[in-house]
Amino acid sequence: VLYSREGHVGRLVLNCPQRHNALGQEELQLIQHHLAAVASDEQVRVLVLTGTGEKTFCAGASLQQLGSGQLSNDCFETTTAQLAGLAVPTICAMNGHVFGAGVELALSCDFRLGVEGSRMRVPAAAIGICYPPSGIQRLVEHLGPAVARRVLLAAEVFDARAMLEVGFIDHLVLQGGLEAATSDLAERVAGLAPLAVRSMKTILGQVLANAVDEDQARELALMCAGSADLAEGFAAQKDKREPRFRGA
Fold first, then answer.
1. 127-140 as b/e, with b when 16 or more CB fall inside 10 Å?
2. CB 193 within 8 A of CB 243
3. How far is 72 from 91, CA to CA, in rounded Å?
4. What is the pLDDT of residue 16?
5. CB 43 within 8 A of CB 102
6. What are phi and psi of 245, to 5 degrees?
7. In 55-177, where does DSSP find H-type helix?
8. Contact, 196 vs 245, CB < 8 A?
9. What are the Cα distances from residue 70, in Å, to 32, 75, 195?
10. Does the N terminus or the C terminus of the chain have fewer Cβ atoms within 10 A?
C-alpha cells in the first residue's frame, strides 16, 4: 500500500497486483496508517484511492486470512469507517474488477470511477459468509435496499454499465482514460473552497445518517460566511478569474 501527495491531492494505491490487491491484516493496517497521515495533513484537500494492475482494483478481503482467523471483521470495519470519516472528499478510481470487501471500500469513498469491461460482485453468499451489519448498512445507504438484496442475497454479477445504472459508480470511462478522468476530478475538487467543501461533507454525512446537528451546521455556515475564502470567491467572481482559496 503506497501513499504520496502532489500539491493538494493525496494518492493511496493498493499495490499488490499479483494477488489482485486483496486485503489482509497488514494491508488494512497500512491503509489505516496512511489515512491517519491524510487526516493530519492540512495540505490535503482530496484523496484518491486506486490500485495497480490491469484487471482488478481490489479482490476484497484475503480469503486465506479470513479462513484461518487471522483477519477479523473489526479490522476491516475500522478501515472503512476511517476512510468514510475523512474530512476531505475521497475519490475511488477503480482500475478494474472489484469484489467482496473491495466493494465496501469503494462505497466508503465520496466519488467512484469505473472502467469499461470491469465487473462487481460480493460473493459472500456463494462462500458462506454473513456480511457484517456495518457493511450491509453502507450498501443500503448508497445503493438502496433493492440493489443491496441483489448484491448480497443473490451474489449478482454487475457489469460496468449495470454498476453505472444502479449508482455504484458515478463516472464510467474507457480503460485508457481513467487516470486523466481521475486527475481532472481531483484537481477540480482540490481547487474549490476547502472550508465549504469540508463543512458540506460533514452535513451530508449527518443527513445520510438522519442525524443532523443543527447547532454544528449553523456554526459551520457561520465559519464559512466569515472566511477569507468567501471574500476570495466573491472577488474572483467580480474579477472573472479563478479563485485562489487558502482554506481559511
1. eebebbebbbebbb
2. yes
3. 26
4. 93
5. no
6. -80, 145
7. 63-68, 73-84, 101-107, 124-127, 133-143, 145-152, 160-165
8. no
9. 17, 10, 40
10. C
CA angle 46, 133, 125 (to 5 degrees): 105
Torsion of CA 207, 210, 211, 217, to 10 degrees: 20
Is the pTM here over 0.90, yes or no? yes
In the prediction, which pLDDT does 69 show?
Answer: 72
Cβ pair 22, 59 in contact under 8 A: yes
Mean pLDDT across the stretch 235-240? 95
Q: Which three cell numbers stand for residue 145?
A: 435496499
CA distance 122 to 186: 28
Distance CA 198, CA 153 (A): 35
Q: Tens digit of pLDDT for each residue in 77-87?
A: 999 999 999 99
The contacts of residue 134 (CB under 8 Å, 6+ apart) are: 77, 80, 81
Residue 21 confidence (pLDDT) above 80? yes
Q: Where are the beta strands (DSSP E) in 119-224?
A: 119-121, 158-159, 171-173
Query: β-pairing, 9-14 with 2-6?
Result: antiparallel
Task: Give the per-residue pLDDT at 70.
Answer: 72
Q: Kindly give the interhelix angle for 73-84 and 133-143, rounded to the nearest 10 degrees.
A: 40
